[in-house]
C-alpha cells in the first residue's frame, strides 16, 4: 500500500519531491526505550517575543553513585561515578549548551549530559533537535531563545556543542555571543553537517536505496526535494554554509570528524586554513559512531578541549570505559564495576 502511495505521488515529479521533502523534515517518533525521568526535567526556553523551543535540564540526583552505559554496534560505553568524585574542572559559573543532531533522541544525549555535568561541574542544557520545529528551519530558529537564556544566566563561559545538523544552531548562537557579549565562548562541532544537499543524498543512499519504492524515485527528484526544503524554510544553501560561517568567525572552534563518515565528511574542513579552528580527524568511524562518542581518542580530545586541560586516554574516571563486545577481558571488567 505504501509503495502504491509513493508511485501515485511520483506520477507528478513536483508532487513526489514535495512528498520526500515532507518525509525528510517531519518530526520523527522517538524510538528510545527506558526510564530516565529521574535524571532530566523537560522545559521550554523562550525569547522576548514568546517564541519557544524545548529542552531538558538535569535534576539533582540524591543517590550516592550513578552508573550508566549504552551499546552501539560493537562498542559499549560505561561510566560510573560517586558523589565523592571531584569534577576534573569545577566551574559552576560556566554554561554548556548541547544541540543534538537531526532526529537524535535527547534521551540518549541525556547520558552524555549527565557525564559532562559530572566531569565539569557546569550547568548543562540540551535542546530539541532541529526536526522538532514546525516549520523546519535547520535549527536556526533556536538562536533567539538560546541568546535570551544566555542573557538570563550571565555565565562566565559558554561552551556550545553541536552534533551533526545541530552544529548549524551552535555556530549561529556563537556568532551572536561573539558580537554581543564579552564572555568567553567555545564551539565544539561533532560530525558537523557542512552540506545539507550532500548529507541528504548520502542518507537517502544509505537508508532508502535498497527499498522497493526507491525504484520509482530518481536522484534528481531527491535533489529537487532538497531545494523544496530550502524554499519551504525561507532559507538558502548560503544560510547553512557551516564551513564559511565558521571560517569567518573568530570563536575558538574544535571540529571532530571522521574520514569514514559518509554523511558529514571531514574533507571540507581539511581545506580550511584558520588559526581558530582545530580539526580532530578520526579513521574508521561512521556518522552514528562519531555522534555517539564511542571512541576513546575522540572522547579524550573532546574533554581536553572542554576543560582546557590535557586528559589521558587511560583516565577512565573521566572518560569512562569503551569496550569492544568481543573483548572478553574488557567486558568482564565492566561487569565487575
TrEMBL record:
Residues 1-19 form the signal peptide. The keyword Magnesium does not apply. SUPFAM superfamilies: alpha/beta-Hydrolases. InterPro entries: AB_hydrolase_fold. Keywords: Signal. This is AB hydrolase-1 domain-containing protein. It comes from Psychrosphaera ytuae.
Amino acid at each position: 500500500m505504501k509503495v502504491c502511495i509513493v508511485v501515485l505521488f511520483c506520477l507528478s515529479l513536483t508532487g513526489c519531491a514535495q512528498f520526500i521533502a515532507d518525509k525528510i523534515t517531519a518530526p520523527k517518533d522517538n524510538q528510545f526505550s527506558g526510564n530516565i525521568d529521574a535524571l532530566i526535567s523537560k522545559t521550554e526556553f523562550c525569547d522576548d517575543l514568546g517564541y519557544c523551543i524545548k529542552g531538558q535540564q538535569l535534576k539533582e540526583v540524591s543517590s550516592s553513585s550513578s552508573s550508566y552505559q549504552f551499546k552501539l554496534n560493537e562498542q559499549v560505553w560505561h561510566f560510573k561515578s560517586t558523589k565523592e568524585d571531584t569534577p576534573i574542572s569545577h566551574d559552576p559559573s560556566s554554561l554548556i549548551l548541547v544541540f543534538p543532531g537531526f532526529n537524535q533522541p535527547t534521551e540518549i544525549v541525556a547520558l552524555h549530559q549527565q557525564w559532562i555535568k559530572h566531569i565539569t561541574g557546569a550547568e548543562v542544557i540540551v535542546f530539541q533537535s532541529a526536526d522538532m520545529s514546525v516549520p523546519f528551519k535547520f535549527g536556526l530558529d533556536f538562536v533567539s531563545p538560546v541568546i535570551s537564556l544566555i542573557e538570563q544566566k550571565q555565565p562566565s563561559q559558554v561552551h556550545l556543542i553541536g552534533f551533526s545538523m545541530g552544529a548549524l544552531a551552535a555556530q549561529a548562537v556563537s556568532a551572536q555571543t561573539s558580537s554581543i557579549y564579552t564572555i568567553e565562548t567555545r564551539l565544539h562541532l561533532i560530525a558537523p553537517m557542512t552540506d545539507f544537499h550532500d548529507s541528504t543524498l548520502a542518507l537517502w543512499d544509505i537508508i532508502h536505496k535498497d527499498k522497493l519504492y526507491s525504484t520509482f524515485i530518481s536522484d534528481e527528484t531527491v535533489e529537487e526535494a532538497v531545494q523544496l526544503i530550502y524554499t519551504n524554510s525561507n532559507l538558502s544553501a548560503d544560510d547553512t554554509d557551516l564551513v564559511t560561517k565558521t571560517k569567518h568567525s573568530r570563536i575558538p572552534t574544535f571540529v571532530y570528524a571522521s574520514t569514514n563518515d559518509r554523511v558529514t565528511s571531514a574533507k571540507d574542513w581539511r581545506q580550511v586554513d584558520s588559526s581558530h579552528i582545530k580539526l580532530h580527524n578520526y579513521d574508521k568511524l561512521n556518522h552514528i559512531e562519531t555522534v555517539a562518542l564511542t571512541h576513546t581518542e575522540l572522547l579524550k580530545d573532546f574533554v581536553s578541549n572542554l576543560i582546557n586541560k590535557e586528559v589521558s586516554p587511560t583516565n577512565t574516571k573521566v572518560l569512562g570505559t569503551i569496550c569492544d563486545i568481543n573483548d572478553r577481558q574488557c567486558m568482564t571488567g565492566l561487569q565487575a564495576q
